[in-house]
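Quick one: structure tokens for this chain, please?
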Amino acid sequence: MAKFFERLEPEHIEFIRRQSLFFVATATEGAHPNLSPKGYQSLRVLAPSRLAYVDLPGSGNQTATHVAEHGRITLMFCSFERTPMILRVYGRGRVLALDSQDFMSLKARLGDMVGPHTRQIIDVEIQRVQTSCGYAVPLFEYRGERDTLRRYHDKKHAEVDWDAYIAERTQPQPPVVR
């Protein structure tokens, strides 16, 4: 049975800390929802009512486009280990650009999570938390992070003007229309 909370409880924070993978969902009017997997230990709980994650350049920027438009964002964590659970965090997000004062302030709190490949930070004010059973989620064994994206960005650093590359990949994207 689903349970709802106004903020993250200590056991939720510990659960999030143990996850190597989470999912981010956003949507905008008249478009398909966007759902993205995230890894690389890129998320930190800042308070029971706030979390943030480091966003790396990928194939698009739909999440940031949607968040900048209306702020709605959902993060989902699910246990692939013996004890099942699904945890959803509903909130209002802000996109913090590399050159913003808010980015610089949060960068200090996130430390080494913010690295040379960081595109932006997504800062989330938590509005609601939901837990559910997760009984149908299969068991998986975590074997480690893929280094493919980091190697790709290392190569790009040597090939292109990195600041221009990031600027291009932080532009709002048109919605993927239904």
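The chain has a mean pLDDT of 93.
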